[in-house]
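Researcher: Here's a chain I'd like modeled. Treat it as a single chain, no partners, no ligands.
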Amino acid sequence: MCKNASEGICLMQKCAILIAECAAAARKREEKNMVTAVRSLGLQGISGYEVTVECFLSGGLPAFDIVGLGDTAVKESRERVRAAVKNCGVKFPVSRITVNLAPAGLKKEGTLYDLPILLGILACAEEIKSPARDAAFVGELSLTGTLRAVNGVLPMAMAAARAGIKTLYVPAANAAEATLADGVTVYGVPDVVSLVQHLKGKAPLRPEPKWQAEQTDEQGPDFSDVMGQENVKRALEIAAAGGHNILLIGSPGAGKSMLARRLPSILPDMTRKEALEATEIWSVAGLTDSSHPMLLHRPFRAPHHTLSASAMTGGGKVPKPGEISLAHHGVLFLDELPEFHRDVLEVLRAPIEDGEVTITRAAGSVTLPSRFMLVGAMNPCRCGWYGHPSGRCHCTKQQVEKYVEKISGPMLDRMDLHVNVPSVEFEAMRRREKAESSAEVKARVNRAREVQKERFSGTDVACNAQMTPAMVGEYCTLDAAGEKLLKGAFERLGLTARSHDRLLRVARTIADLDGSETIEAHHLAEAIQYRNTDILQG
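Model: Modeled as a single isolated chain. Structure tokens:
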């Protein structure tokens, strides 16, 4: 009994000593003010901003708390970080851990804070030195310590450069995309072990080389595939040259979708600035490719008519880009236009005019860019055969009008060109000579765009379709014959002030394609014919 009692006393003494040592260590940490700050980044809409991850170890019962308005994914990082630390051969501190994501007033979401939280804890526990002040870290952890890719790396990398961050550590799968931002040295991190060894100076990682686009022979749909439809091709050339919206109206099988999908092949190549802006949006939406992180061609979006208004403009608790933003600097193609819900079409009105859309949700308000060309396609009636030479349409006039009325007048007013797409004749389909290629059309479009670039130099306007009313008055002057023609069209077609300006913008583009410094009467006459579609007059 004495022996057992003595062993019990010794055990109690050892426990007391251990508790005292833990308390002393805790006091020592508190005296040292063991708060470690690790720089990271976050997203608000499609814009990046700096986030500081503050970690603090204190005495008391072991706990792990994350504060700073994090969502569920942020809260769950506790378990990912804990498992990643243990599976990487590093001792997880037995202490009360508090992590603060600053600024605490902004909502944080996603898994991208896993890596900076882990590094902050290890630095507080003196397992590693505190990271350099000019370095930032982003990445999602697996339970084994490997890093998984996250969305929105490009806008965060560009925000890092603006914030004076010199070095950026991201998951290896995101490294190529991050190098698109200038002024930042990027390290692709495969796993936590490699990063810890790098920070300790034992096995340095190599900086990721700047990603360069490779020359490819990738060929999209070409205009040479289309037989006939010369008038429609001309209208699409005008639309491409000036960035105008266009509505294609024709019976099923006439080639409306085929022609619309070939429009990007004649559009001017994107500038680097435009490509980066479009890539930022796609990056946030998680649509970029790790092997080809930058958009090299203008986007072409063709959503189904069943999509919602939120999917069109963007939405969610934390607003994300919708179809009109994904089509930024590209083409938004709406096939079967009258089949779209009325509210879906109406939300397009403001973005078409402003080139941006503002989304307000409980989590905040964000403004997303949405400068796109709108291409609509529709049948002339419900059955699709109104006006067809075969006479197979049995729709009444009232049924035809009801079908067309699904598209509001203000929406139709924003379509610069209304083009009838006739059914292709048999002889045209069997023609063996090759039609004009997209490259030939694109050359003319590029020449017209160069004229516009020089005209609007020093402004934010890129093409004729974006001209302000003041610019329309300056660059779209008419002679006496043109004024008379425009007045007659204004009264005959019942044009509004908006359609009046849009008509002049189209005429200006036709003149640019013709190499004319002034708008001649025949340029204006051609522009008028594209707003004189019979099906839309009633």
